[in-house]
Design goal:
Number of helices of chain A: 2
Distance between the termini of chain A: 40 Å
Structural class of chain A: alpha+beta
Strand content of chain A: 25-35%
Largest sheet of chain B: 4 strands, antiparallel
Oligomer: heterodimer
Structural class of chain B: mainly beta
Number of strands of chain B: 28
Distance between the termini of chain B: 27 Å
Chain lengths: 89, 376
Amino acid sequence: MTPVRVLVPNPLRSYTRDVATVSAEGGTLADVVGDLDRRYPGIRFRIVDEHGRIRQHIKFFVNGLQVRDLSPRLDRDDEVMIVCALSGG
Amino acid sequence: MAQAAKMPARRVSLLLATRKGLWQLHGDATRRSWRVAGPQFLGHIVHHCIADPRDGKTMLAAARTGHLGPTIFRSADRGRSWHEAKQPPAFGEGSNRTVDHTFWLTPGHASEPGVWYAGTSPQGLFRSEDGGATWRGVAGFNEHPQRKAWCGGDQDGTPDGAKLHSILIDPRDPKHMYIGMSSGGVFESTDAGADWRPLNHGVKADFLPQPDPEYGHDPHCVRLHPLLPDRLYQQNHCGIYRLDRPADRWEDIGVGMPKSVGPIGFPMVVHPREPDTIWVFPMDGTSVWPRVSPGGKPAVYRSVNGGKTWQRQATGLPKSQGWWTVKRQAMTADAGAPAGIYFGTTSGAVWGSRDEGRTWKCLAAHLPEIYAVETM
């Protein structure tokens, strides 16, 4: 399995016990999100819907570049950043 | 009306689901003094929180945030600690719909401990058999061949999304259920949700071209009387209605409301013991639908004869410049004698009456917009 670093935004840190950077494994972004959910149960459904689509106000960046879905392949030591978009009120 | 005999004092707590979290209001034994507790889930949009009357300690709360997807929180100790559902309500793989939020929670029948139902936006019906830990779609509704026609499209929903609400379980038969949908109307199942049929005859839908359509209506809140389960009431987008089963044509009981106030509102409350006694909270549904108290003069209206006549109950409420209203889940009654009536406002205040609406007192203010009020 490929270990990657995942930067977790504030609104999701109730799942990671306030840890901002965690490790997860997987060959694709979808695998990594699945592994995150095994380590931190419930986190996936808050950011990805029941059809595997990234939720409307969530963004994923891989090594600083935004990705639009969970299909990208990941390499060892890639960095995944989860961001809550500027929205709300 | 004869004065009800006073019942032994029982402490009442109110569960306040708001746009920014969950609060509780704890009353003393006389229901005169109230203490605010909370918040919990600060920053979460809590659409509904309700306690399980079957065990007196389980509570479920439906929550999401502006960014994060919807979930269900569960408490087994009257709200002291909470745990997230392992599998919140979500549509199946064959569906192209996504649950935006869970809007309504209903504990199941007394004979089915651990069973709960949830209604979502967009309209979906879900069932849990383990106290809210895991949820499955009720296929008889979510995959019904007529579902799409019943629910309509994106333009048929309420401003913050179409909703399935008012999940009612017949206390005599766990297989007999009603649901309300905005939009869609009222629907009935007699086989535990395996099949459904519309139940809307007699209800106006002046936003549709047909004079008496089979479905497509907008019930805002439907209630079933627990001691007379064949008696249904609904506060609808187009008026107030009553239905005595097995009849299937609703009777318009909003005609007796004063013309200057009108029959439009969101909530509907039934008396805990008297099936003919109900309360509504009218709002301005004229012109562009301001959805505030008519004329800025908030008032509750009560009927003690099943909706034939109505009395204004506004003693203690602002006499003018009160520009708020009460959402469909934000008004309720306790089981006391006389019954306590409570409502939460869009301006974040909670009002209560310990004399069945004759006089009102502000129990809490300065909270976020209140979405739901339930007693515990």
